[in-house]
Amino acid sequence: MGEFLRNSWYCAGWGADLSDKPIGIKIIGEDLVLFRTSDGSAVALAGRCPHRFAPLAQGKVIGDVIQCCYHGLQFDRNGACTLNPHGQGKIPPRAHTRSYPLVERNGALWVWMGDPAAAREDQIIDLYFCGGAEGWAGLTGYLKIKADYQLVIDNLLDLTHGTYLHPDTVGVDPEHSLGSSLVYDFKTEGTTVHSNYSFFNSPPTALFKPFFHSERGDIFAFMRWEPAGALILDISTTELGMAKGTGVQIPSAHFIVPETDNSCHYFFALYRNVELDDEEKTRAMGAIAAKAFVEEDEPVIHDCYEMMNGEDFFDLEPAILETDVAGIQARRILSKLIRAERRQIADADA
User: Fold this and answer.
1) In a designed cystine with 195, which of 239, 240, 242, 326 is the match (CB 3.0 to 4.6 A)?
2) Which of 3.40.50.300, 1.10.645.10, 3.90.640.10, 3.90.380.10 is the CATH number of 137-337?
3) How does pLDDT run across 53-87, given as a tens digit for each residue?
Protein backbone atom coordinates (compact mmCIF):
# COMPACT_ATOMS: atom_id res chain seq x y z
CA MET A 1 0.00 0.00 0.00
CA GLY A 2 1.32 3.41 -0.99
CA GLU A 3 1.69 6.44 1.22
CA PHE A 4 -1.35 8.56 1.96
CA LEU A 5 -1.91 11.61 4.12
CA ARG A 6 -3.51 10.37 7.33
CA ASN A 7 -4.08 13.64 9.17
CA SER A 8 -6.78 14.85 6.85
CA TRP A 9 -10.56 14.96 6.63
CA TYR A 10 -11.84 12.59 3.94
CA CYS A 11 -15.40 12.55 2.64
CA ALA A 12 -16.94 9.18 3.48
CA GLY A 13 -20.30 9.78 1.83
CA TRP A 14 -23.41 11.90 1.80
CA GLY A 15 -25.46 12.13 4.96
CA ALA A 16 -28.73 11.51 3.12
CA ASP A 17 -27.45 8.06 2.09
CA LEU A 18 -26.68 6.92 5.65
CA SER A 19 -29.30 5.37 7.91
CA ASP A 20 -29.24 2.79 10.68
CA LYS A 21 -28.27 0.28 7.99
CA PRO A 22 -24.46 -0.01 8.06
CA ILE A 23 -22.37 1.08 5.08
CA GLY A 24 -18.85 -0.16 4.44
CA ILE A 25 -16.15 1.91 2.77
CA LYS A 26 -12.38 1.57 2.36
CA ILE A 27 -10.35 4.78 2.78
CA ILE A 28 -6.54 4.90 2.38
CA GLY A 29 -6.49 1.12 2.58
CA GLU A 30 -8.51 0.86 5.80
CA ASP A 31 -11.98 -0.69 6.01
CA LEU A 32 -14.56 1.40 7.84
CA VAL A 33 -18.19 0.89 8.76
CA LEU A 34 -20.57 3.85 9.03
CA PHE A 35 -23.97 3.83 10.72
CA ARG A 36 -26.39 6.00 12.67
CA THR A 37 -27.31 5.49 16.31
CA SER A 38 -30.81 5.85 17.74
CA ASP A 39 -30.46 9.64 18.04
CA GLY A 40 -29.39 9.97 14.40
CA SER A 41 -25.71 10.58 15.11
CA ALA A 42 -23.29 9.24 12.51
CA VAL A 43 -20.56 6.86 13.68
CA ALA A 44 -17.41 5.54 11.99
CA LEU A 45 -15.64 2.43 13.26
CA ALA A 46 -12.96 0.16 11.86
CA GLY A 47 -14.86 -2.19 9.58
CA ARG A 48 -13.33 -5.51 10.71
CA CYS A 49 -14.68 -7.37 13.70
CA PRO A 50 -11.77 -8.13 16.09
CA HIS A 51 -13.12 -11.65 16.78
CA ARG A 52 -12.99 -13.52 13.46
CA PHE A 53 -12.52 -10.49 11.20
CA ALA A 54 -15.99 -10.48 9.65
CA PRO A 55 -17.09 -7.24 7.93
CA LEU A 56 -19.15 -5.21 10.38
CA ALA A 57 -20.91 -3.58 7.44
CA GLN A 58 -22.79 -6.86 7.02
CA GLY A 59 -24.09 -6.63 10.58
CA LYS A 60 -27.04 -4.66 11.89
CA VAL A 61 -27.61 -1.71 14.16
CA ILE A 62 -29.49 -2.33 17.39
CA GLY A 63 -30.19 0.92 19.17
CA ASP A 64 -26.80 2.54 19.68
CA VAL A 65 -24.60 -0.47 18.90
CA ILE A 66 -23.67 -2.45 15.84
CA GLN A 67 -23.94 -6.23 15.97
CA CYS A 68 -21.55 -8.42 14.02
CA CYS A 69 -23.27 -10.70 11.52
CA TYR A 70 -21.03 -13.68 12.38
CA HIS A 71 -21.20 -14.29 16.14
CA GLY A 72 -23.33 -11.43 17.42
CA LEU A 73 -20.74 -9.40 19.30
CA GLN A 74 -21.89 -5.82 19.75
CA PHE A 75 -19.82 -2.62 19.63
CA ASP A 76 -20.71 0.89 20.72
CA ARG A 77 -19.83 4.19 19.03
CA ASN A 78 -16.44 4.20 20.75
CA GLY A 79 -15.55 0.76 19.38
CA ALA A 80 -15.88 -1.01 22.74
CA CYS A 81 -17.50 -4.44 22.81
CA THR A 82 -20.60 -4.20 24.97
CA LEU A 83 -21.97 -7.72 24.55
CA ASN A 84 -20.56 -11.20 24.09
CA PRO A 85 -23.61 -13.49 23.80
CA HIS A 86 -21.55 -16.66 24.23
CA GLY A 87 -20.47 -18.69 27.28
CA GLN A 88 -20.39 -16.62 30.43
CA GLY A 89 -20.44 -13.42 28.42
CA LYS A 90 -16.92 -12.36 29.33
CA ILE A 91 -15.53 -9.72 27.01
CA PRO A 92 -11.92 -10.45 25.97
CA PRO A 93 -9.39 -7.58 26.30
CA ARG A 94 -8.88 -7.49 22.54
CA ALA A 95 -12.61 -7.27 21.79
CA HIS A 96 -12.57 -3.64 20.68
CA THR A 97 -12.24 -1.80 17.40
CA ARG A 98 -11.07 1.65 16.43
CA SER A 99 -13.39 4.63 16.41
CA TYR A 100 -12.75 7.47 13.95
CA PRO A 101 -13.70 11.13 14.42
CA LEU A 102 -16.68 11.83 12.16
CA VAL A 103 -18.34 15.15 11.41
CA GLU A 104 -21.54 15.64 9.44
CA ARG A 105 -21.61 19.09 7.86
CA ASN A 106 -23.49 20.61 4.91
CA GLY A 107 -24.81 17.20 3.95
CA ALA A 108 -21.40 15.49 3.78
CA LEU A 109 -19.82 12.94 6.13
CA TRP A 110 -16.18 13.67 7.02
CA VAL A 111 -13.86 11.13 8.62
CA TRP A 112 -10.47 11.92 10.16
CA MET A 113 -8.09 9.06 9.39
CA GLY A 114 -5.10 10.16 11.48
CA ASP A 115 -4.35 11.07 15.07
CA PRO A 116 -7.68 11.99 16.73
CA ALA A 117 -5.92 14.61 18.84
CA ALA A 118 -4.92 16.46 15.68
CA ALA A 119 -8.44 16.64 14.21
CA ARG A 120 -9.71 20.20 13.77
CA GLU A 121 -13.21 20.69 12.44
CA ASP A 122 -12.35 24.16 11.13
CA GLN A 123 -10.17 22.46 8.51
CA ILE A 124 -13.21 20.94 6.77
CA ILE A 125 -13.76 22.64 3.42
CA ASP A 126 -16.74 25.01 3.23
CA LEU A 127 -19.54 23.33 1.28
CA TYR A 128 -21.67 26.45 1.38
CA PHE A 129 -24.26 25.45 -1.23
CA CYS A 130 -25.11 21.92 -0.01
CA GLY A 131 -27.08 20.35 2.79
CA GLY A 132 -30.28 22.31 2.33
CA ALA A 133 -28.57 25.71 2.13
CA GLU A 134 -31.06 28.47 1.32
CA GLY A 135 -30.99 29.72 -2.25
CA TRP A 136 -29.57 26.57 -3.82
CA ALA A 137 -30.95 23.46 -5.52
CA GLY A 138 -29.11 20.47 -6.87
CA LEU A 139 -27.95 16.94 -6.35
CA THR A 140 -25.17 14.73 -5.02
CA GLY A 141 -23.62 11.60 -6.49
CA TYR A 142 -20.85 9.03 -6.36
CA LEU A 143 -18.44 7.44 -8.80
CA LYS A 144 -15.78 4.77 -8.32
CA ILE A 145 -12.61 5.34 -10.34
CA LYS A 146 -10.01 2.63 -10.91
CA ALA A 147 -6.93 4.84 -10.88
CA ASP A 148 -4.56 6.69 -8.58
CA TYR A 149 -6.55 9.47 -6.91
CA GLN A 150 -3.91 12.08 -7.74
CA LEU A 151 -4.66 11.64 -11.45
CA VAL A 152 -8.24 12.69 -10.73
CA ILE A 153 -7.00 15.76 -8.86
CA ASP A 154 -4.75 16.58 -11.84
CA ASN A 155 -7.79 16.34 -14.09
CA LEU A 156 -9.86 18.72 -11.99
CA LEU A 157 -7.16 21.35 -11.54
CA ASP A 158 -6.56 21.55 -15.30
CA LEU A 159 -9.87 22.60 -16.83
CA THR A 160 -8.39 22.97 -20.34
CA HIS A 161 -9.19 19.31 -20.96
CA GLY A 162 -12.86 20.29 -21.12
CA THR A 163 -12.32 21.71 -24.59
CA TYR A 164 -11.50 18.28 -26.00
CA LEU A 165 -13.05 15.79 -23.58
CA HIS A 166 -16.29 17.60 -22.68
CA PRO A 167 -17.33 19.77 -25.68
CA ASP A 168 -20.98 18.71 -25.39
CA THR A 169 -21.33 18.67 -21.60
CA VAL A 170 -19.27 21.02 -19.43
CA GLY A 171 -16.80 22.45 -21.96
CA VAL A 172 -16.87 24.68 -25.03
CA ASP A 173 -15.09 24.52 -28.38
CA PRO A 174 -11.43 25.60 -28.84
CA GLU A 175 -12.37 28.90 -30.48
CA HIS A 176 -13.98 30.10 -27.26
CA SER A 177 -11.83 28.36 -24.64
CA LEU A 178 -8.23 28.82 -25.81
CA GLY A 179 -5.98 31.66 -26.91
CA SER A 180 -7.08 35.21 -26.20
CA SER A 181 -10.48 34.01 -25.02
CA LEU A 182 -8.88 32.39 -21.96
CA VAL A 183 -7.34 34.10 -18.94
CA TYR A 184 -5.68 31.73 -16.48
CA ASP A 185 -4.65 32.64 -12.94
CA PHE A 186 -2.87 30.31 -10.54
CA LYS A 187 -1.96 30.91 -6.91
CA THR A 188 -1.33 29.11 -3.62
CA GLU A 189 -2.39 30.20 -0.16
CA GLY A 190 -0.65 28.04 2.41
CA THR A 191 -1.59 24.49 1.41
CA THR A 192 -4.55 25.60 -0.72
CA VAL A 193 -4.18 25.70 -4.51
CA HIS A 194 -6.32 27.95 -6.69
CA SER A 195 -6.68 27.27 -10.43
CA ASN A 196 -8.86 29.97 -11.96
CA TYR A 197 -10.06 30.13 -15.55
CA SER A 198 -12.01 32.95 -17.22
CA PHE A 199 -13.49 32.45 -20.69
CA PHE A 200 -14.68 35.70 -22.23
CA ASN A 201 -17.29 36.19 -24.95
CA SER A 202 -18.10 32.49 -24.99
CA PRO A 203 -21.26 30.54 -25.71
CA PRO A 204 -22.61 28.84 -22.56
CA THR A 205 -21.80 25.20 -21.95
CA ALA A 206 -24.49 22.55 -22.25
CA LEU A 207 -24.73 22.55 -18.46
CA PHE A 208 -25.59 26.28 -18.37
CA LYS A 209 -27.79 26.54 -21.47
CA PRO A 210 -31.07 25.62 -19.71
CA PHE A 211 -30.53 28.52 -17.29
CA PHE A 212 -28.50 31.09 -19.24
CA HIS A 213 -30.40 32.20 -22.33
CA SER A 214 -28.04 34.67 -24.01
CA GLU A 215 -25.99 33.44 -26.95
CA ARG A 216 -22.74 34.59 -25.36
CA GLY A 217 -21.46 35.43 -21.92
CA ASP A 218 -18.38 35.40 -19.72
CA ILE A 219 -17.59 32.15 -17.91
CA PHE A 220 -15.67 32.21 -14.63
CA ALA A 221 -14.48 28.79 -13.46
CA PHE A 222 -12.49 29.03 -10.24
CA MET A 223 -11.25 25.72 -8.78
CA ARG A 224 -9.89 25.37 -5.25
CA TRP A 225 -8.04 22.32 -3.88
CA GLU A 226 -7.39 21.58 -0.22
CA PRO A 227 -5.43 18.54 1.01
CA ALA A 228 -5.83 15.74 0.68
CA GLY A 229 -8.54 15.59 -1.99
CA ALA A 230 -11.27 18.20 -1.50
CA LEU A 231 -12.05 20.51 -4.43
CA ILE A 232 -14.70 23.16 -4.97
CA LEU A 233 -15.43 24.57 -8.43
CA ASP A 234 -16.98 28.03 -8.17
CA ILE A 235 -18.35 28.51 -11.67
CA SER A 236 -20.69 31.13 -13.06
CA THR A 237 -21.81 32.47 -16.43
CA THR A 238 -22.59 36.19 -16.61
CA GLU A 239 -23.75 38.61 -19.23
CA LEU A 240 -20.84 40.08 -21.20
CA GLY A 241 -18.78 42.47 -19.12
CA MET A 242 -20.52 41.70 -15.84
CA ALA A 243 -18.65 40.79 -12.66
CA LYS A 244 -18.01 37.21 -11.62
CA GLY A 245 -20.87 35.74 -9.60
CA THR A 246 -23.55 38.11 -10.87
CA GLY A 247 -25.18 35.66 -13.26
CA VAL A 248 -26.09 31.99 -13.19
CA GLN A 249 -23.99 30.07 -10.67
CA ILE A 250 -23.56 26.28 -10.73
CA PRO A 251 -20.89 25.50 -8.11
CA SER A 252 -19.80 21.92 -7.62
CA ALA A 253 -17.92 19.84 -5.06
CA HIS A 254 -15.44 17.13 -5.99
CA PHE A 255 -14.20 15.00 -3.11
CA ILE A 256 -11.52 12.56 -4.26
CA VAL A 257 -10.87 9.90 -1.63
CA PRO A 258 -8.14 7.27 -2.09
CA GLU A 259 -9.39 3.74 -1.55
CA THR A 260 -6.22 1.86 -2.51
CA ASP A 261 -3.14 2.58 -4.62
CA ASN A 262 -5.18 1.99 -7.78
CA SER A 263 -8.72 3.06 -6.92
CA CYS A 264 -10.55 5.99 -5.40
CA HIS A 265 -13.97 7.27 -4.46
CA TYR A 266 -15.38 10.34 -6.18
CA PHE A 267 -18.17 12.07 -4.27
CA PHE A 268 -19.62 15.01 -6.18
CA ALA A 269 -22.29 17.65 -5.70
CA LEU A 270 -23.77 20.00 -8.29
CA TYR A 271 -26.00 22.95 -7.32
CA ARG A 272 -27.44 26.11 -8.90
CA ASN A 273 -28.84 29.46 -7.74
CA VAL A 274 -31.74 29.79 -10.24
CA GLU A 275 -35.03 28.00 -10.98
CA LEU A 276 -34.76 26.17 -7.69
CA ASP A 277 -38.10 24.35 -7.91
CA ASP A 278 -37.62 22.85 -11.36
CA GLU A 279 -36.93 19.20 -10.58
CA GLU A 280 -36.83 18.26 -14.26
CA LYS A 281 -33.92 20.62 -14.80
CA THR A 282 -32.22 19.19 -11.71
CA ARG A 283 -32.45 15.73 -13.27
CA ALA A 284 -31.10 17.12 -16.54
CA MET A 285 -28.14 18.63 -14.66
CA GLY A 286 -27.50 15.22 -13.15
CA ALA A 287 -27.58 13.55 -16.54
CA ILE A 288 -25.03 16.00 -17.98
CA ALA A 289 -22.77 15.57 -14.95
CA ALA A 290 -23.03 11.79 -15.16
CA LYS A 291 -22.06 11.84 -18.83
CA ALA A 292 -19.10 14.14 -18.14
CA PHE A 293 -17.81 12.22 -15.12
CA VAL A 294 -18.77 8.62 -15.91
CA GLU A 295 -18.58 8.45 -19.70
CA GLU A 296 -15.87 11.01 -20.41
CA ASP A 297 -13.56 11.61 -17.42
CA GLU A 298 -13.40 8.17 -15.82
CA PRO A 299 -12.45 6.13 -18.92
CA VAL A 300 -9.59 8.40 -19.96
CA ILE A 301 -8.24 8.73 -16.41
CA HIS A 302 -8.30 4.95 -16.08
CA ASP A 303 -6.55 4.57 -19.45
CA CYS A 304 -3.87 7.08 -18.39
CA TYR A 305 -3.30 5.07 -15.21
CA GLU A 306 -3.01 1.85 -17.17
CA MET A 307 -0.54 3.44 -19.61
CA MET A 308 1.69 4.44 -16.69
CA ASN A 309 2.24 0.73 -15.94
CA GLY A 310 2.59 1.33 -12.21
CA GLU A 311 5.44 3.82 -12.57
CA ASP A 312 5.68 7.01 -10.51
CA PHE A 313 4.27 10.13 -12.15
CA PHE A 314 7.47 12.17 -11.98
CA ASP A 315 9.70 9.18 -12.83
CA LEU A 316 7.98 9.14 -16.22
CA GLU A 317 9.23 12.70 -16.80
CA PRO A 318 5.93 14.16 -18.04
CA ALA A 319 5.92 17.12 -20.38
CA ILE A 320 4.67 20.02 -18.25
CA LEU A 321 2.36 22.59 -19.84
CA GLU A 322 1.79 26.10 -18.52
CA THR A 323 -1.70 25.14 -17.35
CA ASP A 324 -0.36 22.10 -15.45
CA VAL A 325 1.14 24.28 -12.72
CA ALA A 326 -1.81 23.89 -10.31
CA GLY A 327 -1.78 20.11 -10.47
CA ILE A 328 2.00 19.96 -10.09
CA GLN A 329 1.87 22.28 -7.10
CA ALA A 330 -0.86 20.20 -5.47
CA ARG A 331 1.26 17.06 -5.90
CA ARG A 332 4.26 18.78 -4.33
CA ILE A 333 2.27 20.11 -1.38
CA LEU A 334 0.71 16.71 -0.76
CA SER A 335 4.09 14.98 -0.95
CA LYS A 336 5.58 17.48 1.48
CA LEU A 337 2.74 16.97 3.96
CA ILE A 338 3.07 13.19 3.77
CA ARG A 339 6.84 13.34 4.33
CA ALA A 340 6.41 15.64 7.33
CA GLU A 341 3.76 13.35 8.76
CA ARG A 342 6.00 10.28 8.35
CA ARG A 343 8.88 12.07 10.12
CA GLN A 344 6.59 13.02 12.98
CA ILE A 345 5.42 9.43 13.37
CA ALA A 346 9.00 8.13 13.23
CA ASP A 347 10.12 10.64 15.86
CA ALA A 348 7.24 9.65 18.14
CA ASP A 349 8.15 5.97 17.81
CA ALA A 350 11.87 6.55 18.45
Assistant:
1) 326
2) 3.90.380.10
3) 999 999 999 999 999 999 999 999 999 999 999 99
